[in-house]
Write a structure and sequence with these properties.
- It contains 36 helices and 22 strands.
- It is of the alpha/beta class.
- It folds into five domains: about 260 residues, Rossmann fold, CATH 3.40.50; about 190 residues, Nucleotidyltransferase, domain 5, CATH 3.30.420; about 100 residues, Taq DNA Polymerase, Chain T, domain 4, CATH 1.20.1060.10; about 160 residues, Alpha-Beta Plaits; about 110 residues, 5' to 3' exonuclease, C-terminal subdomain (DNA polymerase, domain 1).
- The chain has a six-stranded mixed beta sheet. The protein has a six-stranded mixed beta sheet with strand order 7-10-9-8-11-12, with helices on both faces. Strands 20-21-17-22 form a four-stranded antiparallel beta sheet.
- The termini are far apart.
């Protein structure tokens, strides 16, 4: 059996581990996620391949010959995150202690060391396996050298490289010269993407030969190729992996010093102890009960485990003297953490049970106000305490820190207090930093502080045994409430500096803080509902459902329960013998909406069933339910907007969900008819960004064709149809425009040929032809998509125009999860930037309404749309000023356009 050399791209591993792992920390607050991830990957790859020789190769800080040659090389890469930088030395120590030869050479990139070792191994008859996620190293692949990507499970031999890139390994450098390398800031040919590069190299073999025939390449692409000719000597030198680095004194000529050493057991034990790796420590020592010294799960009740405080000082305020002393303390403090305990999670109904305060880590108090039940100790009078603290609560100059401030603002409003001075919110700090993870206070405490406080379930119970917080024993409630305020101030001291480190994150956080108050006002405003209209719609839907049920029975030839998946499967797949599209995990044929939608293209019964289900959902979710959700005090329906729930920055609406009312069916649109102004003489006004995500695509891709269409004010779908179908703008048919619209929106959501074919009802080949023509006409879009996917794989996230980070947890997973993450990576910057823009618009519009003392109100936000309840005398002002404000919140390379509709209800205005 041939000997093998396993080379691990250590620099690739540590970045991947850092972005793939949660923010793990030991009990001292040191970051450990990347350390854990790298050790785990090194253990696994060694187990999987068991090579004769091996090395883990890292980049070393400092300039290489490439920076000397091209100062802009890697210039756009962000500075290494501080948390990762802190883990570099321990990673090197751990890998070496595991027995791996570790190599890092000043002035030489890891890729060049790997290339040199691969060539040397080949000269000795040794097969090489390189573990990396770096596409540049594909140029080393040959019959004796293979790449593996442990994150995705992908193996690239010679055939694999050709399948992935469309070129042979020997052509990879030429391929990269044409497409460029966005990650390393190496320029390619403008508007030339992977498909064009592969096509050219398949035809001409090399860039040199391609240039010799450059006159045969027509159009913009040919002109750009010729214009780039003078840079190819430089880019080839930058992109070519060196295979002749001087390794004397580092690696023996015969590779013998790349054999594994015996693991350094004592060093590994010390590392596992320090960083809290419990399982590995027990495995190494044979002690199944051993707990590492650094284990963050070991918590003492009297210590702050991050080392920020030595003891806890929690106080229950039960005398007016204590209350006044704390009021004096918070007045002197620069920033005060504030938290409420309430009777309900429904913000509009929740009443205050007590509140907690903290001015520094480890120091907090709880002021109980309305706990009830037998044997409760004496509490202060609620009215007296609120009157005492009200001036501080309502002082905009008194800086306050909360976790989910919007909820607490509602609670205080329910008590007649206008909470002001909300300067920080740890929920929003966490959301801005890591939107892909839970932002609950308890989860953040575990993740960042290494502590678990008393849980709500421990305090109040679950299910039928659950009690209200106002029934909880005051001493236990006080501990819980003090922890909330204390954890909040500790988290702020960890999270806020991280937000400030990045200008984009700081900008987004400031926006989210401002949006929180606007959302509070929108939720407080509520929406007026026409109950009589909904009742009439509900009655009509019920009648239609009876008719559809009869029609379904007629088609099936027998009665059956339309709401029973079991009976439905029996009718469709056993008796009518329709094709089984997909099965459930239990193995029975699925009858979900996706399956019925596919079957409805060819069979009548699934179509009837879909209509029935659509009406049933509308009826139960809206026409029957909305009248019951009217707040008896306000006479309006009040939704809840979750600000920190969607990775892209979008808001989500619940109880009721006002963002999911369907608009593609007449019945769905009719539901909007029941949303009316609060005053009989008033109006509903809808202000909606026009084609916002396509405008963002034009901006981020830099594609001249898309940009010009928007700059000229053209119908973008007609303009796209003109380009794709090569017809004059005025000759575009409705069918061509419809196809272009499907392409425009489909591609920004990562839709492929199969999806487009399904959407348009055409063959896959025809759909692929449309897509190819689209990318030929708009090459900047294709280039953006490839660059974005590459960036996502490199750093684990993509960004909006304004700096919001959009994390992609599965970007380096395998199979369908990876493909879905790549589609999300393409779309997320568009959807996220659109979310940023509508939030900016909300703030701008709210500032204008409040600053001018206007009576009109924003009552809903639905994706790219703001909905207003407008009094008659302000209608003209709203119609004129709102679209101007919305179009001016930011400057892109294409104009932002907002369109306004007016009506006596939402349907008319939309």
């Amino acid at each position: 059996m041939k000997k093998t050399l396993l080379l691990v791209d250590g620099s690739s591993y540590l970045y991947r581990a850092y972005h793939a792992m949660p923010d793990l920390r030991n009990k001292h607050g040191e970051p450990t996620g990347a350390i854990y991830g790298v050790i785990n990957m090194m253990r696994k790859i060694l187990q999987d391949y068991q090579p004769h020789y091996a090395a883990c190769v890292f980049d070393v800080r400092g300039k290489t010959f490439r920076e000397e040659m091209f100062p802009e090389y890697k210039a756009q890469r962000e500075k290494m995150p501080e948390d990762l930088a802190l883990q570099i030395a321990p990673i090197h120590q751990a890998v070496a202690a595991m027995g791996w030869p570790v190599i890092g050479i000043e002035g030489v990139e890891a890729d060049d060391v790997i290339g040199t070792l691969a060539v040397r191994a080949q000269s000795l008859g040794v097969e090489t396996i390189i573990s990396t996620g770096d596409k540049d190293l594909a140029q080393l692949v040959n019959e004796h050298c293979t790449l593996i990507n442990t994150m995705s499970g992908q193996i690239l031999d010679e055939k694999g490289v050709e399948e992935k890139f469309g070129v042979k390994p020997s052509q990879i450098v030429d391929y990269l010269m044409l497409v460029g390398d966005t990650i390393d800031n190496v320029p390619g040919v403008d508007k030339v993407g992977p498909k064009t590069a592969a096509k050219w190299l398949q035809a001409y073999g090399t860039v040199e030969n391609l240039l010799a025939h450059a006159s045969e390449i027509k159009g913009v692409a040919g002109a750009n190729l010729r214009a780039a000719a003078n840079q190819f000597e430089l880019t080839k030198a930058l992109l070519t992996v060196k295979t002749d680095c001087e390794l004397a004194g580092v690696v023996d000529d015969n590779l013998e010093n790349l054999r594994f050493r015996e693991p350094d057991r004592e060093s590994l034990i010390a590392l596992y102890e320090r960083f809290g790796f419990r399982t590995w420590l027990r495995e190494l020592t044979g002690d199944k009960d051993r707990i590492p010294e650094g284990d963050s799960r070991v918590a003492e009740q009297t210590r702050q485990e991050t080392g920020l405080v030595d003891s806890l000082q929690y106080e229950t305020v039960t005398t007016i003297e204590q209350a006044k002393a704390w009021l004096d303390r918070i007045k002197r403090a620069k920033l005060v953490a504030l938290d409420t305990e309430t009777t309900s999670l429904d913000a509009m109904k929740a009443r205050l049970v007590g509140f907690s305060l903290s001015t520094e880590p480890g120091l907090a108090c709880y002021v109980p106000l309305s706990h009830r039940g037998p044997d409760m100790p004496q509490q202060l009078d609620k009215k007296e305490v609120l009157e005492l603290f009200a001036p501080w609560f309502e002082d905009p100059a008194a800086a306050k820190l909360l976790h989910h401030a919007k909820y607490d603002m509602h609670v205080f409003a329910n008590e007649g207090i206008n909470l002001a001075g909300v300067q920080h919110d740890t929920m929003l700090q966490a959301y801005v930093l890591e939107s892909h993870r839970s932002v609950s206070l308890n989860e953040l405490a575990k993740r960042w502080l290494g502590q678990s406080g008393i849980s709500y379930e421990e305090l109040c119970g679950k299910g039928v045994n659950q009690i209200g917080f106002d029934e909880v024993d005051i001493s236990r409630a006080s501990r819980y409430a003090c922890e909330d305020a204390d954890f909040t101030i500790r988290l702020h001291r960890l999270l806020f500096p991280k937000v400030q480190e990045d200008d984009g994150l700081a900008r987004i956080y400031a926006l989210e803080i401002a949006v929180s108050t606007v959302l509070w006002r929108i939720e407080r405003n509520g929406v007026a509902i026409d109950v009589a209209e909904l009742n009439a719609q509900s009655h009509e839907m019920g009648r239609l459902m009876v008719d559809l049920e009869a029609k379904a029975h007629e088609i099936a030839g027998q009665p059956f329960n339309l709401n029973s998946p079991k009976q439905l499967a029996e009718i469709l797949f056993v008796q009518m013998k329709l094709p089984v599209v997909r099965k459930t995990p239990s193995g029975t044929p699925s009858t979900d909406e996706e399956v019925l939608s596919k079957l409805a293209l060819d069979y009548p019964l699934p179509k009837v069933l879909l209509e029935y289900r659509g009406l049933a959902k509308l009826k139960s979710t809206y026409t029957d339910k909305l009248p019951k959700m009217i707040n008896p005090k306000t006479g309006r329906v009040h939704t809840n907007y979750s600000q920190a729930a969607v990775i892209t920055g979008r808001l989500s609406s619940s109880d009721p969900n006002l963002q999911n009312i369907p608009i593609r069916t007449p019945e769905g649109r009719r539901v909007r008819k029941a949303f009316v102004p609060g005053n009989a003489n008033g109006f509903i006004v809808s202000a909606d960004y026009s084609q916002i995500e396509l405008r963002v695509m034009a901006h981020v891709s830099g594609d001249e064709g898309l940009r010009n269409a928007f700059l000229k004010g053209q119908d973008i779908h007609r303009a796209t149809a003109s380009e794709v179908f090569s017809v004059p703008l005025e000759d575009v048919t409705p069918e061509q425009r419809r196809a272009a619209k499907a392409i425009n929106f489909g591609l920004i959501y990562g839709m492929g040929a199969h999806g487009l074919a399904m959407n348009l009802g055409i063959t896959r080949e025809a759909a692929q032809s449309y897509i190819d023509k689209y990318f030929a006409r708009y090459p900047g879009v294709a280039k953006y998509m490839e660059a974005t996917k590459a960036l996502a794989h490199e750093q684990g996230f993509v960004q909006t125009v304004f700096g919001r980070r959009l994390w992609l947890a599965d970007i380096n997973a395998g199979g369908a999860r990876r493909a879905a993450a790549e589609r999300a990576a393409i779309n997320a910057p568009m959807q996220g930037t659109a979310a940023d823009l509508i939030k900016m618009a909300m703030v701008a519009v709210d500032d204008w309404l409040q600053g001018n003392g206007m009576q009109s109100k924003v009552i809903m936000q639905v994706h790219d749309e703001l909905v207003f309840d407008v009094v008659e005398e302000e209608l003209e002002q709203i119609k004129l000023q709102v679209p101007v404000l919305m179009s001016q919140v930011a400057t892109l390379t294409v104009p932002l356009v907002a369109e306004v509709g007016v009506g006596k209800n939402w349907e008319q205005a939309h």
